[in-house]
Write a structure and sequence with these properties.
single chain, about 350 residues, alpha/beta, Rossmann fold, N-(1-d-carboxylethyl)-l-norvaline Dehydrogenase, domain 2, 2 domains, eight-stranded mixed β-sheet, four-stranded mixed β-sheet, 12 strands
């Protein structure tokens, strides 16, 4: 592997921090953008603390606060910021990328059109982050679960450059290249729209939340509406959860089909019962969630392609009201959602 390639990681949170630290540990030439000057100084001089599935270590990484503070040009840029920051970050990057550089969107949701609008489709790479991480405090991150990366060119065929990128990312987790990256991204978006959003609405851990039949009904309706939208888009949605959740089979009619759906959801709740929604964690920190990039995306595409999404519309509105301080986080919020079928 050619470790001379220059790599820029933007975002020092749960995902970006782990990615930058592991790649640096493996000998890659990495520069990190942290947003905060004090954090950039700390990571440069004292190191970032990493733990969990990638091992426990502390490593110094050359860091700057803002993209404009970077020097030289980069072969690969891995963006792991909140989705709302993508456009401004990508614009600031333009002086630091080459014609054949690859810019990877590691955000939640489907942000690749925004990225491509700034850096061009020929540079844009979609990425599904299929592993977990958490930031305990600035400069201290943990890889909480194994998984995979899925990468793919945006609106164009694959090329050999992605093989090199996949080889770099393999130092972190298993990485595969998809010719249908939108399908993979949409598949993960559905999961986020169920687990992250429902948790933000009610404030419960996943196990307690999915033990409630009314919540499981909403879980099913979110998926049903998302697949309705995908059908209108003529998009075949990839199997989720590492090949374990086929949405089409999940929704298929048949003997005991309703029972099987609820059983599947209960199993998810039992397996990940102590999981706290990332959107709920954002609300608890007084920050905006990314629900508008989850359920909001489904709703927007539904309007665009003429597919009804009443449950996703209502969930997006409720979370927006919580963000504005107009509503409290509570399981009582579910009572007013009209499933409309």
């Amino acid at each position: 592997m050619d470790n001379s390639k220059r790599i820029c990681v933007i975002g020092a949170g749960a995902i970006g921090g782990v990615v930058a630290a592991v790649l640096t540990r493996e000998g890659h030439n990495v520069q990190l953008v942290t947003k905060y000057p004090e954090l950039a100084e700390t990571i440069s001089n004292k190191g970032i603390k990493v733990g969990g599935n990638c091992g426990d270590f502390t490593i110094q990484i050359p860091s700057v606060a803002l993209p404009g503070d970077l020097d030289g040009v980069f072969d690969y840029v891995l963006i792991a910021t909140m989705a709302e920051a993508l456009q401004s970050v990508a614009t600031a990057l333009l002086p630091f990328i080459k014609e054949n550089s690859k810019v990877v969107s590691m955000q939640n949701g489907i942000c690749e059109d925004i990225l491509a609008g700034v850096v061009g489709e020929e540079r844009t790479v979609g990425c599904v982050v299929g592993w977990g991480g958490t930031m305990h405090e600035p400069g201290k991150v943990e890889m909480t679960s194994d998984g995979e990366f899925i990468i793919g060119n945006w609106n164009r065929e694959g090329d050999n450059d992605l093989k090199e990128l996949a080889g770099i990312l393999e130092h972190i987790v298993s990485t595969r290249i998809s010719e249908h990256i939108l399908s993979e991204l949409y598949s993960k978006l559905i999961i986020n729209s169920c687990i992250s959003t429902l948790g933000a609405v009610c404030g419960l851990y996943l196990g307690e939340m999915l033990a409630r039949k009314n919540v499981r009904n909403l879980f099913i309706e979110i998926i049903r509406e998302a697949i309705r939208v995908a059908d209108a888009m003529e998009l075949k949605v990839a199997i989720a959860a590492g090949g374990k959740l086929n949405y089409y089979k999940f929704l298929a009619p048949g003997l005991m089909s309703g029972f099987k759906r609820h059983l599947t959801i209960r199993v998810i709740g039992l397996k990940y019962r102590k999981l706290k929604s990332s959107s709920l964690q954002s609300l608890e920190r007084g920050k905006k969630t990314e629900v508008d990039n989850y359920n909001g995306y489904i709703s927007a595409k539904g309007r665009e392609f003429g597919a009804a999404t009443p449950v996703n519309d209502q969930l997006n509105r409720i979370v927006s009201e919580i963000e504005k301080g107009e509503r409290k986080i509570s399981p009582d919020n579910f009572r007013e959602i009209n499933q409309g079928n």
